[in-house]
Description:
The protein is an alpha/beta fold. The protein has helices spanning about 5, 15-30, 40-60, 65-75, 80-85, 100-110, 130-135, 165-180, 195-210, 215-225, 235-240, 240-255, 265-270; strands at about 10-15, 30-35, 75, 90-95, 120, 140-145, 155-160, 180-185, 285, 290-294. It starts with a helix and ends with a strand.
Amino acid sequence: MTDNIRLASVTVLGTGTMGQGIAQVCAAAGHAVRLHDAAEGRAAKAVDAIATGLEKLVIKGKITAESRASTLGRLSAARGPEDAARGANVLVEAVPEDMTLKVDVLRGVMAAAAADVLVASNTSSLSITELGARLGVPDRTVGLHFFNPPPIMELVEVVRGLGTSETTLERALAFVKGLAKTPIVVRDVPGFATSRLGVILGAEAMRMLETGVASAADIDKGMELGYRHPMGPLKLTDLVGLDVRLAILDHLTKEVGDQFRPPTILRTMVRAGKLGKKTGEGFYRWVDGQPVPK
């Protein structure tokens, strides 16, 4: 049942930070990986970006030159939806948190994919049940919520929709374990398990900042040193993207309740284009990829 997952041909849809990271993880684990993006040329640029990142790891002594070469040898840029679907055992969607966009992107590739392809979404908050129903394959649809950055973070949240079959769940778990990641299985509820806890901690940290309880750096240091969090909630928000966090909070406010209402400071910063690391400024300034307290 799981042999085709252990030796999978994986197609990653979306070439942002998460798409690149997931593609790298899958290729490093031995899978043949194709990156696909609707924007022409973006998939090839993503492969180049992964190559650059791997070279930095070689220079730092984190991986060998041979490991870099073998990983890159398994990565390629798809030349369109049909090429992306060709021979794929697993589709992993990693586009922005918009249900209609996710459905459209997956449909475009699924039309040419095998009838038994595993359909996975990296969504951190949207309904897997709805996604599977709209795609017409609820039994083969599952959530694979990787954490940022995927090459470093061990956890993958495996989300079972109402229609997800036992076979699909077993295939998804085998796939995740084959990536040397640790899965947890959660039901398809708004925000799943980790997003609900993570964003509400981040939102409270933002409210503390806007009311002057402490600086961003000291709030983060308190959680890092006092609670052993590897990264404080405001720094993590910068890494994930303030716009992403805002979209999740808006969704959870609608689905769950006002405890998830976004802080004013978050909405204001997003409107100002201060989205975190990807724009160079959020709760920190980002210089050469490192956070600098304001």
